[in-house]
Write a structure and sequence with these properties.
single chain, alpha/beta, 7-stranded mixed β-sheet, 10 helices, 7 strands, 42% helix, 17% strand, elongated
């Protein structure tokens, strides 16, 4: 295995650690890729000042196409770099399901944000095999004004997530624009698959009695 491949393998094996990424940055610096090396170092620095962040944005703008080479590129797919690598994807539920195998096999993807979701697309997504690298998931319901009649009640979608065993791999779950009926709240409060979440965020949700969820998740639950 080449030094390049070995360093990338180490990053994938220890995705939460900065040391393998910084070692790779050193290798890049020594092998004619100073822009990428600098970019990784800046994004791995939690104390980076505004000037450094501006510099990172400049480096990304200049090299983005090259650094995203080989990844699925579509108008509705937005990639974001985290700690030097394209770990975040924002796309529509429709595109994700259409190109599922292409997205799901990517080794760097850790944070997934899907929007314009219907009940059927959430159920479909929950029943697919997930990449074990996914640790953050954001799901946003389709805007209310454009929902199919069968989608006015989001309970089927929320039940699919609560009953999805693959949710146990997540650290963070963010649900936006979903209508939490009393039944959906009960299902979430009782789900064993959600027990290990570090954080569960509900935003732009319809008013309801979230007491069971507050009792279940405590400070890990954020509503607003």
């Amino acid at each position: 295995m080449s030094d390049d491949a070995a360093l990338l393998a180490a990053i994938l094996a220890h995705p939460d650690e900065d040391t393998p990424r910084l070692m790779y940055a050193d290798w890049l610096q020594e092998n004619g890729q100073p822009d990428r090396a600098e970019f990784i170092r800046i994004q791995c620095d939690p104390t980076a000042e505004e000037a450094a962040e501006d510099r990172a944005a400049e480096l990304e703008e200049r090299n983005r196409a090259k650094w995203l080479a080989g990844l699925p590129q579509f108008p509705d797919a937005r990639w974001e770099f985290r700690r030097g690598f394209p770990e975040y994807l924002d796309t529509t539920g429709e595109l994700m399901l259409e190109r599922y195998e292409a997205f799901a096999r990517l080794p760097w993807l850790r944070c997934l944000s899907l929007h314009e979701l219907h009940n059927s697309s959430v159920r479909d997504f929950a029943n697919r095999p997930w990449n074990p690298q996914w640790i953050e998931l954001e799901l946003q319901a389709h805007p209310t004004g454009l929902l199919f009649e069968s989608d006015y009640d989001h309970t089927p979608a929320l039940t699919a997530i609560a009953h999805c065993p693959q949710v146990v791999q997540l650290h963070r779950l963010h649900l936006s624009m979903f209508d939490f009926t009393p039944h959906a709240i009960h299902v979430f409060a009782e789900s064993r698959h959600l027990a290990e979440l570090d954080n569960i965020t509900l935003s732009f949700v319809y008013e309801g009695d979230f007491t069971p969820l507050r009792e279940r998740f405590g400070e890990r639950l954020v509503i607003g």
